[in-house]
Specification:
single chain; alpha/beta; Undecaprenyl pyrophosphate synthetase; six-stranded parallel sheet; 7 helices; 6 strands; 15% strand; globular; binds farnesyl diphosphate
Length: 240
């Protein structure tokens, strides 16, 4: 994680920030194509931006963030692009390992990462192990993650254990990283306005924010703008 001093807007109330922010980092490919670059350069730039935005989320005092890194549907992309994404993720985890511990930041993964290439599985296992006692911040990477797949796994695990579930809260315990609060704020970049199989169960009452900006160009200032918008919303959770 790199250090950048960012001014905090007076409009942002630091006492009313989301507990868990989730981000669909879309638009890496279009960002690159617009600049005449190969798509994988977009993922590299997306990773550089992820570092800046994580740092800012952490500095603001938000304690949990999930990033949609690779979906169960992304296997349909050309192998070269898949390899490019995996390399960027592996390098990030390998290079930034110590800074996570210094910042007391825990790294967890949602998704079946055992199906990823062995070098990436090893990097992920190492960082999870290394940061498992960190408490200040949780970075959740959704990798080989699909919301429907997660729900199906939960259902199968209940069946296999002969478990009859009495409440939705009981079912939620069967999902990935059930100790995390549900995301109260979800941002999707690049102008697409859909959920793309992301945290379908956990997002039942999330506030959604869409921006046309491609992920590599989404700045700390735009994050603050999104958070100010979040703070204007009235969250009723079905009540009046
Ligand atoms: C969506 O943009 C982005 C992805 C499928 C990959 C996201 C991965 C990274 C940002 C790499 C870094 C991540 C970590 C955790 C180190 P797209 O390719 O669908 O863009 P497009 O819609 O413009 O084609």
């Amino acid at each position: 994680m790199e250090a950048r001093k960012i001014k905090i807007s007076k409009q942002l109330d630091l006492n009313r920030l989301p507990k868990h922010i989730a981000i669909i980092m879309d638009g890496n490919g279009r960002w690159a194509t617009k600049r005449g670059l190969p798509r994988n350069m977009g993922h590299k730039a997306g990773c550089e931006n992820l570092k800046r935005i994580i740092e800012h989320i952490y500095d603001l005092g938000i304690s949990c963030a999930t990033f949609y890194t690779f979906s169960t549907e992304n296997w349909k992309r050309p192998q070269e692009e898949i390899d490019g994404i995996f390399n960027v993720v592996r390098d990030y985890l390998d290079e930034d390992g110590d800074s996570f511990v210094q910042k007391d930041a825990r790294v967890v993964v949602s998704g079946d990462y055992s199906k990823l290439p062995q070098d990436l599985v090893d990097s992920i296992s190492r960082i999870i192990q290394k940061t498992k006692n960190c408490k200040t911040f949780t970075l959740n990477l959704a990798i080989n993650y699909g919301g429907r797949d997660e729900i199906l796994r939960g259902v199968n695990s209940a069946i296999e254990n002969g478990q009859k579930l009495d409440s939705t809260a009981d079912f939620a315990k069967l999902l990935y990283n059930a100790d995390l609060p549900e995301p109260d704020f979800v941002i999707r970049t690049s102008g697409e306005m859909r959920l793309s199989n992301f945290m379908l169960w956990q997002m039942a009452y999330s506030e959604l924010y869409f921006t046309k900006i491609y992920w590599p160009s989404f700045t700390e200032k735009q994050l603050q703008k999104a958070l100010i918008d979040f703070q204007k919303r009235k969250r009723r959770f079905g009540a009046l």
